[in-house]
Amino acid sequence: MSERLEAQFAFLNEADRLKSVLRATTLVDGSRPENSGEHSWHLALYALVLADQAGPGVSIDRVIRMLILHDLVEIDTGDVPIHARNGQAHASPETLAAEAKAADRIFGLLPSDLGDSLRTLWEEFEAAETPDARFAKSLDRVQPVMANLMSGGGTWATYEVTYGQLESRVGTKIARGAPALWDWVKEKARPWFG
Q1: Are 54 and 178 in contact (CB under 8 A)?
Q2: In CA terms, which of 66, 100, 141, 192 is 20 to 30 Å from 15?
Q3: Neighbouring residues of 17: CB distance < 8 A, sequence distance ≥ 6
């Protein structure tokens, strides 16, 4: 039991580092960048509050677990903004490989039964093929949109995002898992782009 607890606390202590990873997205008041720990917590709250937007058969408990885990790899990789102009694509092969390596290390801190279980859940979120994962991914795309709307454009202005880019990079993911949410969000976002 002692070895298992040592491993569990090693993982939990490592996960604390997520609070030091700054994201491009700001808090809704625009006062500072949010960190990835805050983002994960906020997404779990999104899942609780917006559960009525999930499709049939979606397990909100599983969605919340995915959202709590989904950005742990950023401890090693940092945040890769979806609208970044620096040429590093959000889902480039290099980014995906770095995230898989980070997942190996971070989930590998846990006892194998628990680490394998959480790693599988993280992979499900990344693949976004199950109803639970599609809804979780939708929320992961909605939250920064709302932060940008509330902060006067936030990273949209910083990265010179067009409405077409918003639709292709964000809207398709939201619509896939929560179509009514995308309908509502695009109505709110469209005027910002003129």
Answers
A1: yes
A2: 141
A3: 75
Amino acid, single-letter form, for residue 95 = T
Do 140 and 169 form a contact (C-beta atoms < 8 A)? Answer: no
pTM of the entire predicted model: 0.95
Cα dist from 189 to 81, 142, 148, 163, 171, whole Å? 19, 11, 9, 8, 11
* pLDDT for position 81: 86
Give the bridge partners for 22, in sequence order.
Answer: 35
Query: pLDDT value at position 84?
Result: 72
Residues 164, 98 contacting (CB under 8 angstroms)? no
Residue 87 pLDDT: 43
Residues of the chain below pLDDT 70: 85-90
Residue 39: strand, helix, or coil: helix
Contacts 24+ apart (CB under 8 A), 90-95: 90/169
Pairing of strands 22-26, 33-35: antiparallel
Find tokens 């936030």 and name the residue.
154
Domains of the chain listed by start with CATH number: 2-193 (1.10.3210.10)
